[in-house]
Design goal:
By secondary structure, the chain is α/β, with parallel strands linked by helices. It has helices at about 45-60, 75-85, 95-110, 120-130, 145-150, 165-170, 175-180, 190-210, 235-245, 275-285, 295-305, 315-325, 330-340, 360-365, and strands spanning about 5-10, 15-20, 65-70, 90-95, 115-120, 130-135, 155-165, 210-220, 225-235, 245-250, 265-270, 315, 345, 355. The protein folds into 2 domains: about 5-305, Rossmann fold (3-Layer(aba) Sandwich), CATH 3.40.50; about 315-365, Phenylalanyl-tRNA Synthetase, Chain B, domain 1 (2-Layer Sandwich). The strands form 4 sheets. Strands 5-4-3-6-7-9-8 form a 7-stranded mixed sheet, with helices on both faces. The model has no long low-confidence stretch (mean pLDDT about 95). It binds S-adenosylmethionine. S-adenosylmethionine binds near residues 42 and 75.
C-alpha cells in the first residue's frame, strides 16, 4: 500500500508553500525518488533564477511566457509567480502526479493568477509550445531536453539549465561524456571549467542545428552542479559566429601534471558571462529579498571579475607541486604579475585559482 507522504510548510524568498517532507540531507543536488521533494540546498540556484527572470521581465516590452519544465515541488515556478514583478505568465510542469496535485494546491493557497500547473512530459510541451524562458532542472544531465528546448525557445529567449552529472563532465567517466555530450572531457586542475564548457559546447551545437546562436549570460559551477543561463538568438550568420566558439582544444593549453597533449572537447571557448548584465544583477540584488543574498553577491562578484579573463585557470597549490616549490600567497602572485603589466583575476572555479594573460614562463618566475 502506498504510504501517505508527510507535508510541511517552508518559506523560501518571500514564498510560503507546502512541500513533501524530505528524509534527505541538506547537502547535494538531490536524487531521483518516488516523491518530488523540496531540496533546500538548491536555494541559491533558485534565488539567482529569480534575479535573472526579474531582469528579463524588466528588459522586455512584451508579456513573457515562462516555463518551469521540471518543477518537482514547484518551488521555482511558484516563486517566479509570487516574487517577480511585471508582465509574464508561467507554466509549472512535472510528470509526477503527486507534484502536480501539490503545485495546484499551492497556487490556490497563494492566490496566484499568472500561473498554470500541468502534468506532462516536458519534451511534449516543448514540441507543442513556444516559450521566452525555459528552465530545465533535472536529476543528472539536461541533454535529453535541449534539442526540443531549442525548437521551442523564442528569439532572444533564455534557456536556463542545471547539470548535476558533474563527475561525467569533469572526466571521471569519459565514455559516458562522449556518448552524452559528444565530447572528450579532461580530468585535471581545470576540470570544472572544461566540464562547464563541454555543457555549453553541447548547447551551442544543438542551437546550431536550428540556425540559432547562443550567448551565455551567466554560467557557473558549484561542488554539486553546473548551471547556465543562455540567451538564444535566431539567424544563420549569428549561428555561424556562435559556432566559431565551438572547438577542440589541446590539453597542453592547461597546466597539467600529466605529460601528454591530448584532445579535449569539442567545447565552448567563448565567454561564460556577460559582464554588463552581471553588474545589473548585483544592483538588483540590493533591493531584492533573498536568503542567499550574501553568498550570491560573492558569487556574482567573482563571475564579474573573471568575465573578461582568458579561458582556463591555474591553482597556486597544484602549480607548486608541479614546480616542486612551496606555493606563494595569492596576493604575491597578483602583485608580481600585475607589476609586470599582466592582468590577473580570481575565479569562482577554485578558491586557490587564478586566471592571467601572463605566459607560463612568467608565472614560473613568481615561484622562484
Ligand atoms: C531535480 S527535480 C526538479 C527540482 C526543482 N526544479 C526544484 O527547484 O526544486 C527533477 C524533476 O523532473 C521531473 N521529470 C523528470 N523527467 C521529466 C519529464 N520528461 N517530463 C516532466 N517531468 C520530468 C521529476 O519528476 C522531478 O520532479
Amino acid at each position: 500500500m502506498k504510504k501517505t507522504p508527510t507535508i510541511e510548510n517552508i518559506i523560501e524568498g518571500k514564498t510560503n508553500i507546502l512541500v513533501y517532507k524530505s528524509k534527505q540531507s541538506k547537502k547535494g543536488p538531490g536524487s531521483k525518488d518516488d516523491l518530488p521533494f523540496y531540496n533546500p540546498s538548491m536555494e541559491l540556484n533558485r534565488d539567482l533564477s529569480i534575479l535573472v527572470c526579474q531582469w528579463f521581465v524588466n528588459n522586455s516590452k512584451k508579456n513573457l511566457n515562462l516555463l518551469d519544465g521540471l518543477a518537482a515541488s514547484g518551488i521555482r515556478g511558484l516563486r517566479f509567480a509570487n516574487e517577480v514583478v511585471g508582465n509574464f505568465d508561467i507554466t509549472v510542469n512535472d510528470w509526477n502526479p503527486d507534484a502536480y496535485e501539490l503545485v495546484k494546491k499551492n497556487i490556490k493557497n497563494l492566490k496566484l493568477k499568472n500561473i498554470v500547473a500541468i502534468n506532462r512530459n516536458l519534451n511534449t510541451i516543448l514540441l507543442e509550445n513556444k516559450f521566452d524562458y525555459i528552465d530545465i532542472d533535472p536529476f543528472g544531465s539536461p541533454v535529453y531536453f535541449i534539442d526540443l528546448a531549442m525548437r521551442s525557445i523564442c528569439n532572444d529567449g533564455i534557456i536556463a539549465c542545471t547539470a548535476t552529472d558533474t563527475a561525467t563532465l569533469c572526466g571521471t567517466y569519459p565514455k559516458v561524456c562522449l556518448r552524452r555530450y559528444g565530447a572528450i572531457p579532461y580530468h585535471s586542475i581545470a576540470m570544472k571549467e572544461t566540464g562547464l564548457r563541454i555543457l555549453l559546447g553541447f548547447i551551442c551545437r544543438e542551437a546550431g542545428k536550428y540556425d540559432k546562436a547562443i550567448k551565455p549570460l551567466v554560467s557557473y559551477c558549484t561542488d554539486h552542479y553546473f548551471r547556465a543561463y543562455i540567451q538564444v538568438i535566431n539567424g544563420t550568420s549569428r549561428a555561424n559566429d556562435s559556432m566559431k566558439n565551438y572547438s577542440i582544444i589541446k590539453s597542453n593549453n592547461l597546466f597539467s601534471l600529466k605529460n601528454e597533449n591530448v584532445d579535449i572537447g569539442p567545447l565552448w571557448t567563448g565567454k561564460l558571462q556577460n559582464k554588463k548584465i552581471l553588474a545589473e544583477f548585483r544592483t538588483m540584488l540590493f533591493e531584492t529579498h533573498l536568503n542567499t543574498k550574501n553568498e550570491l553577491w560573492k558569487l556574482l562578484d567573482l563571475l564579474e571579475e573573471e568575465a573578461d579573463a582568458p579561458i582556463f585557470f591555474y591553482t597556486t597549490d597544484k602549480l607548486a607541486s608541479l614546480l616542486k616549490k612551496s606555493p606563494p600567497k595569492m596576493e604575491t602572485i597578483f602583485k608580481k604579475l600585475q607589476e609586470k603589466g599582466y592582468n590577473v583575476y580570481r575565479t569562482h572555479f577554485s578558491s586557490t585559482g587564478f586566471k592571467t594573460n601572463a605566459p607560463k614562463s612568467e608565472i614560473e618566475k613568481v615561484y622562484k
